Input
Amino acid sequence: MRQTSLLLAAVLALLTAGITRADARTHEFMLDNGLKLVVQEDHRAPVAVVQIWYKVGAGYEQDGATGVSHALEHMMFKRTKNLATGEFSRIIADRGGRENAFTSLDYTAYFQQWSKDDVELSFKLEAERMQHLLLDETEFTTEMKVIAEERRLRTDDDPQALAVEVAQTVAWQTSPYRQPVIGWAADIASMRLSDLRAWYERWYTPSNATVVVVGDVEPAAVKALADRHFGSIARRDIEPPRARPEVQQHGEKRLIVRNEKVQLPNLMMAFKTPTMTQVGKPGPDGKPVEAWEIYALDVLAAVLDGGSSARFTRELVRGQELASQIGTYFQSMSRLPDMFSIDATPREGHTLEALEAAINRQLDAIKATPPDDAELARVKTQVVADTVYQQDSMFYQAMVIGTLESVGLSWRLRDEYDAGIRQVTPAQVQAVARRYLHEDRSTVAWLLPAEDR
Amino acid sequence: MRATRLLLTVCLGVWACAAHASPGIERWTTTNGAAVYFVAAPEIPMLDLRLVFAAGSARDGARAGVAALTNDLLDEGTATLTADEFHARLEATGAILGSGSLREMAWVSLRTLTAEPQRSTATRLLGELLQAPRFDDAAVTRQRDQALAGLKRALESPGTLGQRAFFRALYGDHPYGRPPEGTVESLGALTPADVDAFYRQHYVARNLTVAIVGALSREEAAALAEQLSANLAAGEAAPALPPLPDYAPVTEHIEFASSQSHVFVGQRGLTREDPDYFPLVVANHVLGGNGVVSKLFAEIREKRGLSYSVESHFEPMGLPGPYVATLQTSGEQLEAAVALLREQIAGFVAQGPGASEFEAAKRNLVGGFPLRIDNNSKIVENLAVIGFYRLPLDYLDAYTRKVEAVTREQAADAVRRRIDPSRLVQITVGRRTAATAAQ
Output
């Protein structure tokens, strides 16, 4: 697609949406083979971050073959047709670049951070490994040992991570979000090179990728480089993953995880919630999910836990002194319905029961009475301030663009976000608390020491 | 970049010839003795402040954990505001408050918009927090319990256990040897009076470095620094720490119910002023500091798949900080992995870096330098370090030049003189194996 027509379309879209904070520094291009390029100018330092995002992750995987996205991510740093093993990383290190990759439920992404003059080299390297990865059996065998160690490090030896992993399998019955990103140990052990090859061939293609560049660059020049290096890759259509939606939950789910390393008990509560990608689709009672609900859930999370003056810290850590720590997380930008979750540790001398009851009283309070104006004003100010603070990190700016695009939304949602938050009313916050923080959507997990029976 | 007057041009062959501009740092001292480091960053309407005191756990004295507890208690309200009131007012401006402490430094940070009235309100509240914290008995007790909870959580982690044991082995009874978070016993004994006394002695102007980065003029920054330090007692800069005692190259295994064993192998390293600093940093970059292209990564992870993470680094401190190589591997591979790690270190000390890997390490350090100062967060952290350790103002500018100047012979010589493979401390944490049972 041509730049001018796209820009015009963007301007029109922004005008019709009545958005005043249009970000003229961000430019979107579509190559003929379906690769999307989003470029954002940031001229504060002579550097750039280049990220390539593939729409594939653990949430695309099948039982018995979990962890294949992550394993492939590891192997993407190995041999290609034109680069010997290790050469890829040596080229980047030689020029002072930083590189890495990350895999989630919804995406697999690779990045380089280096001189703005090396954006072209990023494109060359990424185009090479998008097309010409050579998966070698010996290297694969060694790398799977590394991944087994990674799993031990990140999950098996960390009681809290282990508890989260178990809780996810209990909370989600059929959704692929029940699967750990790194994969089950047995799946890691039984994985074959052919699994990775099939996965690579299925998902690593221009029409399934988004390239994001943020830095001291000229958008038109970056587009020309993208055409040169990615443009010749043939278009291939992607067969979307088979939908396997979560089934209806009937009543609260509860579980206990015991671990001999645990010194402090811990509590997790999670409620299944829609996300921005579910807007317009049927919600829990068949009624379509509306965008304001997602914004209101974000505000709800911040009313409860958006700082030291928010309710949880004020009432449960300081006021009643029941919790030694408490955190609230709402995943609003996911490909599938996700979670609104609370994680808390009781203060010494207090039980998980008492803390759980106190958290429930806080949730009941907001279901009974909408939050007050001062709380909402605080949340909205924080969101607006965050949009300013985010400009300080090129990497974060690229992450926002890449995440939105990869879960099936548009990066333009970024510029609508604070307007969406500003429109949330106290009654809407109360309404989403009532609708979604409901027993039929909840899972409660207790993490306990092994000997505490 | 923001200050073109300090332009530094580095040419490393055609591919890396680029202009690297370091930020223009301005330095002055407030009326009552706080050192101020300022970089103007007009591009984004925001301000980052980092106030650093020599008030880390090395200053705990007999009361292990009091430095960390005092830092934790700073945001528990002021003379005129309860904690609830303080946080409600601060967060209504959109500002983000942070704090923390390590062995040497304790700090408070603030990020705020520069728009008014947000900036004035947020910085006024920060000043109040610094100058008139209230250490209510109830808050002290509660934060002490939280510190105990944090300590217990840390003890669930083999990595944390190993790190603590490594410092203990290297520094013994020296203040560096004690864990910053204290112990269950020491925390239990701390009183509000201990916290108040620690605050009065250490949170004073002459013991303070103020780092400021943001959309402010020098005049505005000066007024801000005066306001923040105004009602602090001038006090005294913290005295020099006692000299480091000798240490023994102990080998210690800590039995722990983890599937992996965590390995720490190392010795004492250096300060940033050490004449061997740059030769050693470049040399270590070859061995274990250059991520996936370093020797340890190639031998231990790429060739053998023994560990997900393997690296080595110098941690420069006010007195020689540790030099450490780490890996994590599952139980039955422990013996082989440790032997390999030690063999790699010994081989590197004996042979020094090879020509091409040495040049590659320098290119990475020099070429990667702009990424260390490419946003306000990173610049304010750099300023805090420069100020805290009283490094020269051209430290950032000189960095790439000094890396460039290191020769392979200097690096090899420094490694031979400074790293002694026969005197390495070795800590392992995990399940007992045949190898560790022998000790």
Observations:
- The CA atoms of residues 42 and 393 of chain A lie 10 Å apart.
